[in-house]
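User: Structure with 2-(butylsulfanyl)adenosine, tokens only please.
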Amino acid sequence: MSQLDVKAEIEKLRTDINYHNERYYVLSAPEISDYEYDQLINRLRELEQANPELLTPDSPSQRVGGRPVSGFESYQFKRQMLSLDNTYSEDDLREWDRRCQKLASGRTYSFVAELKIDGLSISAMYESSLLLRAVTRGDGEVGDIVTENVRTIRSIPLRLTEKPRFPLSSKELPKTLPEKDLLPLFASKVENIENDESLWPKAVEEIEVRGEVFMSNTSFNRLNQEQEEKGQARYANPRNLASGTMKLLDPQMVAARKLDCFAYDLYFDGDKPFQTHWQALEWLRAAGFNVNEHSQICATIDDVIEFCRDWDEKRNHLDYETDGVVIKINQIPLQEDFGTTTKFPRWAVAFKYPPRQAATRVKAITIQVGRTGALTPVAELLPVLLAGTTVSRASLHNEDEITRLGLKIGDWVMVEKSGEIIPKVVKVLVDKRPEIENELQEFVMPSTCPVCGALVIRPLGEAVSRCTNETCNAKLKEALLHFSSRDAMQIDELGDKIVEQLVDKKLVSNLSDLYYLKLADLLKLERMGKKSAQNLLDQIEQSKKRELSQLITGLGIRHVGERKARVLANHFGSLDSLSAASIEELTNIFEIGNTVATAIFNWFSLENNHELLARLRKVGVNFEQASSSTVAKIFAGKQFVLTGKLANLTREEAQKLVEERGGRVNSSVSKKTDYVVAGSDAGSKLDRAEALAITILDESAFVEMLDLNSK
Ligand code: IVH
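Assistant:
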């Protein structure tokens, strides 16, 4: 057995054992008997004893037993994960620079200023260029091993294969160099200096990269929108959601949340490998990590202060949250000289921006009605300048939020901009109340819809109140925009201004009316020329040919997004069979749970929707799944991952072929994956599939499987 085989087997054993530990200890749902478990542990111990160099302190063989507290194993850092001392003013920064000057005793230095990303710090460790483990900061000494979750972050390479461009002269070569066969990325560099022992002090076994994991504002807002559609509570801010996500036990759920990471620190076997921090950042970027593009070298503390001032405003336009600037001494030898206190390095400091809050007054609380009929209370504010923009409205989300804040109409409040484009009310300024007591008014959620006058209900257990009128104009406008969106019927010309007018002018009162519009109708709209009117009509006409799944998406059935629509289209093959399905039949489908099934069933039970479908059918909207509907569901319940380039199929085609057969395509390999289809240049997913012993299909095997079974 080769060393690599041994290593692979050890890794597989460890992954399996950790998995079974979690099943046993955390989920109380073991999958294997104690005897089988003991056999795995014994085999691991045997291999580790024979290959002591492969033994790691976090190996499950090293555990004395006992229940892991968080569901994750802990990891003791070899080199502490430090935190930073905070400064809040320019004077503080100058003071810090003076201390640095003393410590430097005459030696010159520069600074690197980086945005301070508001997320959670993580350490990613690589051995033989493979991501071996990733650990949260924890208390700085011991963190949680969250490798599987970190694997879902695309900007953290699973394998360091990229050849980093070395921007260094020979003088500046790293102090340590990775071994040639272990790290192909260094191969070219190593060849040049192979004979020069002095440049080749020792081989690197472990590369550690530290950085900040965060969630973009876009992802955060999307997830909150989904929460709202489900009638569930909103997440507070992107940072909390990012760290909550990192603690999830299901990597598939983590993958769906789309975390990202900026790398900012690098160690080769526990040491900083370069002469300057800037070089480390360049290495990280070349090795495939995401390094924040706004980082900057500053020659003097004045330049640093300039950077901080500059970004106080500019940070408002980023798609991620920053709460300050981190300033680091660029010269590594000086960093090492300065050293650390028990908690902080002396060579770095955080400059924190004051929170982006402002005080203003709530003039009124109005109600907005969304596509699902949700009534959202909105605070109408006295306009106030906040984070570079004038704010005059803030979402209050729902009734419970108003109760939680104790807010009355007329109150003075603090508004804040966090991860959301829409600012939020953070608290009521109760101290101001004595002066305005008699001007205050309680908010009452209306019992009828402010748009259509229909009854409003708040379903039991939900935070959201909804309009009960299926044909409410507010709902209709949102429904039309959804119907014409990219994932649905793709009527790009139908923007919100047009929808607004079509509904207000009563030219459209349900989705199907779109297909009955005449040129003369459209010409009644403001700023609508003959040419654009005709374009719109042409697009509406073309949309009749969209795929069944797009139509299902477009109908806007609650809980049925693009993915579920495809599952339904593939399963039923026509809208008619879907509409006739019972709840039981629906729940029997892989991926369709009870809530979704009930929502679908209810939608098709409504009289209005029968009419809608009849009118869509009449104008010739496609209700059928293209030919493939006859394909047997041979992949029902099977999970696929596609990787690399296929010679005869695009990724979309391959995905469609799998889904038509009832399978599901995921983006990352996990224990639940059944097949990995590997084309040419397949990367780390293939390695992972091998490590987890998942069946790997090359293109011909995959095509053979499809052919065999579609006959
Ligand atoms: S350097 C010893 N750089 O801020 C150096 N930290 O308040 C330690 N952070 O724990 C970290 N952006 O989670 C560094 N560009 C950046 C950062 C950054 C965000 C976080 C990190 C750290 C915390 C300290």
